[in-house]
Amino acid sequence: MTDQPCLDELPPSAKLVYKVLEYDGPLTQKRIVEESMLSARTVRYALDRLDDCQQIEEQVYFQDARQSLYQLRSPAERTEESSAEAELA
């Protein structure tokens, strides 16, 4: 499965969050809200959709452990994970 069809099926808000992370990432959810000018709820939804498509990874934000840091996965990471899932099926 290629990444592009999954991205094509995402809502516009998820595509915008993807582009924000592409240009400015890694970012916290709060910074994504500020950069994209979307509501916090919409950003959470977009991040969930991007995670479903294995486009992002979530890490601990060491400056404030209550928050997470989001960044795009490298194409190699997305390929490895989809290959591992295919082997399990």
Automatic annotation (TrEMBL):
Domain of life the protein comes from: Archaea
InterPro entries recorded: WH-like_DNA-bd_sf (IPR036388), WH_DNA-bd_sf (IPR036390)
Protein name (database record): ArsR family transcriptional regulator
The species this protein was found in: Halodesulfurarchaeum formicicum
